[in-house]
Amino acid sequence: MPTATSSPRNSGSRLSDRLKKQLFLYASGALLVLTLGVGLSVVATLFSQLKQAEEAGLAHIAETRALAVGEWCRRAVDLSRQVTSRTRIREELAAYNAGRRSLKELADFTRPKLEDAMNLSEEVVGLTRLDRDGRFVTSVGVAVPEALAADLAAPGKDVRFSGPAVLGGAPCLVIAAPIMDRAGRGLGADLVVMNISRLLGIIESGRKVRGAGTIGLGYASGEGAKPFPDGAGGTAGGGASQAEALRLAVAGKTGILVSGDEVTAYTPVSGCGWGLAVSINERELYNPIRLRLIQLALYSLLIYAVCLIGLWRLLRPLTGRLLLHASELESEVDAKTSTLKSELDARLKAERALEEARRQLEDRVRERTRELALANEELREIHSRLEVEHEQRKILSRDLINLLEEDRREVARELHDHTGQLLTTLRLDLQAALESLASSEGCCRGQLESAADKITLVQRDIKSISKGLRPDTLEYLGLAQAIEALLDEYRASTDLDIHFFHKGVPKRFDSQKELALYRITQEALTNTVKYAGAKQVHISLIDRDGRLNLTIEDDGRGFDPAAVAEAAGASGSLGLTLMKERMVQLEGTFHLESAPGRGTQILAELNIRDTNDA
Q1: Does residue 515 sit in helix, strand or coil?
Q2: Tens of pLDDT along 209-235?
Q3: What's residue 521's pLDDT?
Q4: 553: closest CA among 518, 573, 524, 583?
Q5: Which of 193, 201, 309, 347, by CA, is between 20 and 30 Å from 25?
Q6: Considering only CA atoms, which of 164, 198, 192 is closest in space to residue 176?
Q7: Residue 523: phi, psi to the nearest 5?
Q8: In what side-by-side order are the strands of the sheet with 262-269?
């Protein structure tokens, strides 16, 4: 029987297919390794940076809430010291300790004083006075248990806090305030029972952090820490990781603790020995990062797939053509040596076509490179023009702000020096007219008296306006004292409960930066009074390694910044625009957060290290 033999053309075709597949597999494998190497290096770097940014945001939340709790503690200590700072109290205790007063006489004298001190604040629900030996003198309101009073009656000069307890059916805290004579000797102590419902409200208001976290407040207990109650019979702490974080925070440490599927930021509360911890589920904190990295991986896979398709489409005709010619040449050499010249000519023709294609490709590459170079040059010119326009805008904005401040000073000077003097002269003339009518009952006497009273009111208003336009306290007392004076004016004229905390602020530094922070505070309070309908405002001014941070937060109705900007035009609100421009001119940062029903928070930061002249 005849045997079946494969033709040279079929054998060459199978060889060509095998070589094409091998070449494609090698090229695709090399491309895959390169894609994975680049992708993993980029993903690892991005994940580390984004993770640090999320943890820094969580730490900032913890510091902000700790400042609010610390402000409550400071006010509680101030209330306790107000009770013990009265001179008659020290004198009577000294007389009792010297044996010149009996215990009953001391108790009769003390009780009405304590009842009067109960009116200092609604949070003070009980007062108990002890002598220097820790013996009970008298008490009003909620009584302190004997065991707790014995623990707090230890001698010392510092104010001490007890742990939270339920006294009189309400969550309370007992503060032991020592009573000292002028020589620094202990005369006794007052145990002030504070209702901590407001403190628990501060914790409760920030209980949910970014949708899934908890805030816990703890106090020292032995070598560990115990969490505060949440006002509903439970505790404000979270799991085991938050308990450990509270222990570290009570010990005065700050940091981030990762345990299991929970991430906790902890920080101490200044002034009371407490600690605060903010916990959030690891998935809730890092899932946005993971989603972004998954998107990046999908994009890389898509690019890899496109490259594979392009590689296949490039290799298929090229290798097929070359290998097919080689196989045909081999079969023709075996069959007919006479066809060698024609095959060589065909091969040379193919090579010339390939060379022409390569030359055309190089020409196109050079043309595209030239076009890209021209486009790059145009982009550099546009960038240069934008930089020049940005600098011109900064100069114009600085000139406008300086012109505004100069106009304010000029108006204030004109009101005080010219208009004020004219009004003073007019009031003196009216008083002289009134004195000349003192012996008569003329019909114009009432009108003259009314005019004199109105001039007095106008002078008072002009003085207030002049003071607002040019704050003298800023020039003579420094930023912190000027803001305190400004807040006193708002406390006197409004019902706002304003809390101000400052730490490490130099008495004097660059006057432009002082004025910018003062104006931002003034504008923010004006907006709060006019539009926010807030009850409380918390203001903090803290120096952090040469960078001065100003935070203004209210509990008002809030607003949508995007909607306000759209309603007011492209530039937005004039007051907010001036705040931002002041920070831009001084190379600082300005950030505003607000939403309907969630209050408003303003953050401004300036570098004062190089300009500190205090």
Answers
A1: helix
A2: 554 467 888 887 777 788 887 544 344
A3: 93
A4: 524
A5: 347
A6: 192
A7: -65, -40
A8: 224-227, 214-221, 274-281, 262-269, 255-259
